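Q: C-alpha cells for this one, please.
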Amino acid sequence: MVDIKYVCGKLSISRSLVYEMNNEDGKYFDENFPRPVKIGRRSVRWSESELDAYLENRPRSKNVKEPSQ
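A: Here is the predicted structure, written as C-alpha cells:
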C-alpha cells in the first residue's frame, strides 16, 4: 500500500488531481482510477499493483510516438 506522495510522484500529478479523479461529481473523474483504501480515521492508501495496472491500461496521449521496431 502506498501513500498520496507516492501516487503523485508515480503519476506526475498533483495531490488535488488524485482526489478529483476519484470524485464522481468532479470534472476529472476517472472510473478506472484506483480507489483509496481507508486505513485509519484520516489515512488512506492505494494499492501499488492497482496503480501499475491503471498506468498499463490507460489510453496513451495522441502526441506520444510509439517506439519503432
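A few notes: The radius of gyration is 14 Å. Helices lie at 4-11, 15-22, 48-57.
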